Amino acid sequence: MTDLIAIVRDNWLLLLVGQYPNGPLGGLACTLILSILGIVLAFPLSVLVALARLSRWRLLNWPATALVYGARGIPLLLIILWVYFLVPVLIGRNVTGFTTMVCTLVIYESAFLAEVVRAGILALPSGQMEAARALGHGYLGAMWYVILPQALYNMLPSMLSQFVSTIKETTLGYVINVPELTFAASQINNQLLTKPFHVFFLLAVMYFILCWSLTQLAGWLERRIAAKRSGAGAARQVADAENAVISPIATDRPLATASTRQLP
Fold it and tell me: Based on CB atoms within 10 Å of each CB, which residue in 39, 138, 145, 193 is the most buried?
């Protein structure tokens, strides 16, 4: 225990921000920045891919399906290596490991988020689209103003869970020298040499605390959304019951009027 405390006391700054300000920003800060950039930049692409997957046009549906199944069926490490060697060839100059990792996460996470978005859209009642079209919206307008806001709200817990997965996936940036948290822990281990168990146990604890906290937040969001759904459902049932109250005036027989009475 004293060894763990000593490691934290002597290297807490390296674990948090890496060698910054004397070097590149790294450590936990780099891990969070990578994860946030990966999710934020992948989200617009994932929405487009999800809409393409829902499209009846094969010209849109087939490439989007190939991207989703391809990215989800290939190990992330291979995608990292492909991007690492392919991007410099395409743009004609070298790129940093940080840029490579961001590009990789955008491609990889867009495939997973696209399925989350697609599932959120399909989970909505079909009457939502019909009602939006009845109000005069086109397909894209109905998606933008009616369908996507509801679907994205319902998908918040799943997106937060995907963010947790992204945090763990950033550890693979170590192979291309991205100065994230695992890379910082490896630097500490190379300095100490005799305490690898202590260093990587401390690393595991840091990842566990971070991911567990975000998982609890996702669970709280899911319960809150479920409570709002049940409250809205109960209010709708009450409104339907009030509308279904039988009127005291009989409606099965026509009222006698001057035009329907027979003259003697």
Answer: 39
